[in-house]
Each structure stands twice: as C-alpha cells, then as structure tokens.
C-alpha cells in the first residue's frame, strides 16, 4: 500500500476541490429561486405508522379505526380559508385538484398542509377490496412531473404551492 491521493484525484490542483468553478458559477441559478416570494400555502406528504405502504390499507386489521387520509391544516389557515374540522376541501395546484377531509391541527405550522402518502385507491382497475371502501386522496395527482429541484435536479415531491377551499 502506497499513498496515491494526489495522482488519482485527477483535478487540476491534485487536491479535493470542494468548490469547483462549475458549481460556484451555477450558484446564481438556485439563488434566483431563493429570491422568489414564498407561496402562501404549500403541501407536504407524511407517513403514518399504520399505513407505511399503500398495500397496508388493504389489511382489515390495519385499515380499521379512524379515517387517516386527512389534510392537516393549521387553525389560523383553516380560519382564513373557511375550512372546518371534519369538512371537505378542494386542494388545487397547477390545474390539478383533489378532495380531502380536513383535520385542523396545531401540529402544522401556518402555511403548510400535510396529506399522507399512498392513498387514492379509487382509480379504475384497483383490486384492493378493503382499501377501495376508504380510498382517500392521492397526493401524487397534484405533482408536476416536469418540476425539478434547482440544486439536485430531483423531482419536486413536497412543498408545492397549493390553493385550498372548502367544498359545500
């Protein structure tokens, strides 16, 4: 064994370059995104202990109990938007919309709504006999499959801007 770090790095300096010029030059792009105003309301997903995966919604022992596919909304946002605990709301993003039951909760910070991951069992062809009785809202319907995170290039799956209104 012999030290070989300088020659195997293949960088111009022979050192580990933590801030290469290409990345430094690209910082203008995400900085511009940070300069944009934050949306009034965003939605995030959440996991639930009894439904870590959507197939768990089809197991009677795990599916029983209170309805879990609720949109958690901060009380101040609920009041501002005219939403009622236990009522239905329409959640809209980019021309796409879903309906969800509202759960007013201090657990959510103002400006953030949380909907659990893995629901929406009412699609054509669904063969989940237990889960289809309580299909819930599919958060993925709201996502724009062309939207990417400016730093990583990953698909944006959380923190998307929404509008929300009560359904009467």
UniProtKB/TrEMBL annotation:
The keyword Protein transport does not apply. Keywords: 4Fe-4S, Iron, Iron-sulfur, Metal-binding, Molybdenum, Oxidoreductase, Signal. Pfam families: Molydop_binding. InterPro entries: Asp_de-COase-like_dom_sf, MoPterin_dinucl-bd_dom, Prok_Mopterin_Oxidored. The keyword Cell membrane does not apply. This is Molybdopterin dinucleotide binding domain-containing protein. Gene3D superfamilies: 2.40.40.20. Residues 41-155 form the Molybdopterin dinucleotide-binding domain.
């Amino acid at each position: 064994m012999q030290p070989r770090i300088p020659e195997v790095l293949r960088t111009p300096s022979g050192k580990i370059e933590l801030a290469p010029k290409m990345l430094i030059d690209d910082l203008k792009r995400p900085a511009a995104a940070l300069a944009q105003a934050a949306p009034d309301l965003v939605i995030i997903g959440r996991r639930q202990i009894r439904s870590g995966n959507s197939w768990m919604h089809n197991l009677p022992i795990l599916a029983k109990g209170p309805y879990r596919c609720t949109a958690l909304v901060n009380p101040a946002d609920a009041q501002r938007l005219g939403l009622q605990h236990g009522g239905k709301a329409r959640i809209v993003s980019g021309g796409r919309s879903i309906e969800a039951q509202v759960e007013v909760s201090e657990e959510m910070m103002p400006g953030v709504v949380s909907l659990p991951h893995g629901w929406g069992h009412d699609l054509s062809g669904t063969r989940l006999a237990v889960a289809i009785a309580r299909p819930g809202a599919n958060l993925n319907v709201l996502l724009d499959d062309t939207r990417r995170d400016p730093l990583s290039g990953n698909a944006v799956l959380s923190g998307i801007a929404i509008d929300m209104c009560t359904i009467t």
